[in-house]
Amino acid sequence: MLTTKPRGTNDIIPGEVEKWQYIEDVIRDVCRIYGYREIRTPVFEHTELFKRGVGETTDIVEKEMYTFKDRGDRSITLRPEGTASVVRAYLENNLHAGPQPVKLYYIGPMFRYDRPQAGRYRQFHQFGVEVLGAHSAGIDAEVMAMAMEVYRRLGLKDLELHINSLGCPECRPKFRSSLQEFFRPRLEEFCPTCQDRFERNPLRILDCKNKKCRQLAAGAPAILDCLCDRCAAFFEEVKRHLEELGIDYIVDKNLVRGLDYYTHTAFEVMAKGIGAQSSVGGGGRYNGLVEACGGKDTPGIGYALGLERILLAMEQQGVEFPPPWRPDVFVVTASPQAEYAAFKLLAELRNLGYRADKDYNGRSLKAQMKYAGKLNARYTVIIGENELENGTAVVKDMITGEQREITREKIPEIIGR
Ligand code: HAM
Q1: Residues enclosing ligand 1, CB less than 6 A?
Q2: Phi, psi (degrees; rounded to nearest 5) at 103
Q3: Which domains does the chain have, with CATH numbers?
Q4: Would you tell me how many other CB atoms lie within 10 Å of the CB of residue 202?
Q5: What is the dihedral angle through the alpha carbons of 10, 16, 18, 20, rounded to the nearest 10 degrees?
Q6: Given ligand 1 and candidates 88, 125, 279, 298, which is best to mutate, with the most ligand atoms within 8 Å of its CB?
Q7: For residue 171, what are the contacts with CB-CB under 8 A and spacing of at least 6?
Q8: Which atom, in ligand 1's list, is nearest to the CA of 114?
Q9: What is the C-alpha separation between 301 and 287, in angstroms, rounded?
């Protein structure tokens, strides 16, 4: 127990963490270019926020939240996603009072109690963006373009961008009733959850993972065929903007997404060949969410990708990561008397900005050299009795094996910048 992590969580240890840092650097760079600024919200919120925001009839709220009472008897939930929190923060911090739209991004852990498998965890990490206060179709295309740019820069290939429109409060009721009409004759054959959702939110039946329910739902009406004129025109505009950017997309009438807040555009990015959890990101428009959270009628659109899945896809596609950390220089002592001089030299090298290290375990000269080799140090700098007396050091190039004795001030000249 003490040495076992909870199911569905991961340690990200050195060797792995450099890959994460690389992905995060790429993400932050793209956000800078597109004008998105970082927001950091708490990892837990009042449970009500997610119930109201994500939707009472979603799998996330019904089955997957980590909810507990805190010591003050308040119901608290570890965030299962980032959008509701960002909307709350937008309202609470009066970001709606400044120039609109507000373009935000976040990177951080999310929590969902689901059955863990490759690419699905109970604590996972998302990079997400949210744009609040922009209603034109161009921003929908921008969010998708930005997502695709992140994947492109990370070297991912064979991705599919699936898009759909989920309509608006005007076209939803018509769609809702045609769905109910379609499901009604065989309702008893659906799983209990779907039967329960039939009245409360029949759209969710389209998102059921149960095999039988999927079969029964095959051929159900698609919202895309029930869109009102305004929604249909908006969807055309989104597609046109994507085409202008040369971004390929697949119109996927069956795309519903697992969260209730979506209106209009919904999209998902699929990676081929990473197994069952092929969705490497998804998002859409949520024009009613700010209002549902107590604000004024404000349009919103966003997107999130799972960092674990990105990493998995990159590894499976054989994408090369930058080389891992290694010291530029490893300081070696060839006699115990040289210890203080070596310690000081190490500090000086670090002050100059070199990645530098030394042994702290009293290793022999040979063992120190071996250790430096294991760390993949580019150079070693050796100080022994002679060098101590002469104010010099021996610099060894660990690739060529070449070594030279020089005065210590000259070290940067040899090892370069
Ligand atoms: P989502 O589709 O639930 O959307 O999650 C987005 C991405 O997070 C998924 O495509 C997947 O890559 C990753 N993900 C989800 N669950 C897990 C899990 N259990 N383990 C590993 N990765 C996972 C949202 O969360 C929305 N908030 C996205 C959004 C932002 N829509 C508008 N704004």
Answers
A1: 81-83, 112, 114, 119-121, 124, 126, 128, 130, 258-259, 279-284, 302-306, 308-309
A2: -110, 115
A3: 17-171+227-316 (3.30.930.10), 329-415 (3.40.50.800)
A4: 22
A5: -40
A6: 279
A7: 223, 226, 227, 228, 231
A8: 19
A9: 8
User: What six digits make up the tokens of 395?
Assistant: 């610099």
Out of 61, 309, 311, 312, give the residue to mutate to test ligand 1, the one with the largest number of ligand atoms within 8 Å of its CB: 309
DSSP for residue 132 = E
* Tokens at 278, concatenated: 């092929």
Residue 253 tokens, joined: 């009438």
| Residues with Cβ within 8 Å of residue 408, at least 6 apart in sequence | 345, 391, 392, 393
Which atom of ligand 1 lies at the shortest distance from residue 83's CA?
27
Read off the tokens for 398. 């660990």
Pocket test for ligand 1, best of 110, 114, 293, 310 (most atoms within 8 A of CB): 110
Q: Determine the residue type at 256.
A: V
Determine which residue's CA is closest to atom 18 belonging to ligand 1: 120
pTM of the model: 0.94
Query: What type of residue is 28?
Result: R
Q: Residue 328 in contact with residue 350, Cβ under 8 Å?
A: no
For 59-118, write each residue's pLDDT tens digit: 999 999 999 999 999 999 999 999 999 999 999 999 999 999 999 999 999 999 999 998
Structure tokens at 80: 């299962």
User: 227: which DSSP letter?
Assistant: -
pLDDT at residue 417, as a whole number: 67
CA separation for the pair 102, 29 (Å, rounded): 18
Q: How far is CA 415 from CA 87, 240, 355, 373, 378, in A?
A: 51, 54, 12, 16, 9
